[in-house]
User: Fold this.
Amino acid sequence: MKKYYKIIIVFSIIVLILALLINIPENRKDFKTPHFNFLFSSSIDSSNIVELSKVLEASYSKISNNLNTIPADNIEVNIYAQRWRYVKATGHWNASGNVEGISKLHFIENTWLESEISKIAVHELTHAIFLKLLIDREPEPLNVENFNEKFSKLPIWIWEAVSVYEPEQFYDPKTLNYLNNGKYPDISELNNRSKGQKIYPVDTL
Assistant:
């Protein structure tokens, strides 16, 4: 029994230490450009943020022209060095980036599926601008409840297709075995992120 008590005590101490570490505020830096405010982990090389800002500023104009809409004036870009901090801020474990409204982006520096952080950033920026387009098409004043209901019915494949097109997140069809075998996904699969994540590579073709 003493052995089990020791295990419980050690486990409790580990949990307590982890809880304390998670709640320690992160040391962050900031960098501003005409359309963006970058907030990023201090361990991230600032020169990388400068290069990323050039990509996003160029994409800001390009995407707004393509979608014929005016994006938010000042978009906050949150970049995390550790995945657990990204998860804590967003509640998303599987994703590498997400959008919070029309003027707030979150993504992690080192992603699982994408080698270039700039493509993840442009992907999320596209979501924000696309969302702005949908809101602009609503009658004023905006009825949030009605809009959320309409948005929930928006086909996921359209939402994601636009956002993989802009950053050119291309997947070679030859690498997708299910296409080579003639097992083409139907619309229901492309409208469900839980069905093998086929929505992302197929939408780039």
About this structure: The radius of gyration is 20 Å. The first helix runs from residue 2 to 22.
